[in-house]
Protein 1
Amino acid sequence: MRDDQELFHGAMGALGDVKPLAPKHKTANLNKQADDKLNLRARREAATAQTARELNPLGGEFVEPVDPWDPIEFKRDGVQNGVYRNLRLGKYHVDARLDLHHHTIEMARSALYQFVRDCIDADVRCALVTHGKGEGRKQPALLKSCVNAWLPQLPEVLAFHSAQKQHGGLGATYVLLRKSERKRQQNLEQHQRRNK
């Protein structure tokens, strides 16, 4: 240990212009009350400040473009083929509708996320999202492409498919939603009563 110190001091002395720093005593600001209020406010704002992106998990980055005339479709594993076929054919009653016409991308992202949450809270199983085809626009089918990219990101969405002509055709999408926990519990209780 002593050898290390001697080597260090020797090396510093060889440089010639190295001098130890004089200790400086800084004084602390004793006006703590004003600082504490500012710090408390800043900490509170930082803790409660959540951006829209943090509250909404839907990615707003690159979205794979979809042709205006192509159907969009998605089905999670576990969704029965017959259930998906009935959704595709528009055989389920549409309990809620969302129209995204005249929405910006960010407005549509926020509206779609909130719509799905509201549907789950209201025990809606089948919903319709109208997004349009975006024909004749600089970027055709932009909202349609976004809906196609966003819906699979929501775990509450079991499946979706472009709608039948009477519900908007390729400019709208049927969405099959997961049962809410409350509805699942009610079904379980009904089946238990039937089996007794």
Protein 2
Amino acid sequence: MTDATASKELIITRTFDAPRELVYRAFTDPDQIVQWFGPVGFSVPRDTVEIDARTGGHQRLTMVSDDDPNMTSPVDATFTEVIENELLVGTEKWEGIPGQQEGGSMYMRIEFHDEGGKTRLVLRQGLYTEEVADMAREGWESSFTKLDTLLTD
């Protein structure tokens, strides 16, 4: 994927039945992120997770396919703006998908809005090609289904 073909911003809005502080913590606590991050069929080993949730801090982890442990997807993000319980903004380096796109970097913005005891999350990420944006949306939606379970347990 080149900058010329990456033109789509992924925007996902989702409401979670949990207070904003709990949803934010699920994104910044390594012990929680391993329980939900990654689409169904992928796990995040705890020993791969490092999170320093502050401006200039980072989030590093590796998603591993449950079916083929040799298939991994590392995440290496740097936070450029952090407001506790409200906002995570950063840039993410990623490795390419063989045969589909080269590696590169993208931005991500995650907003946590209080909705009367629930949390409306707005995620913006990109830029993507149309095809990869659809795959990313499916991955996030699958991850958020796992997050719903974590938050209601």
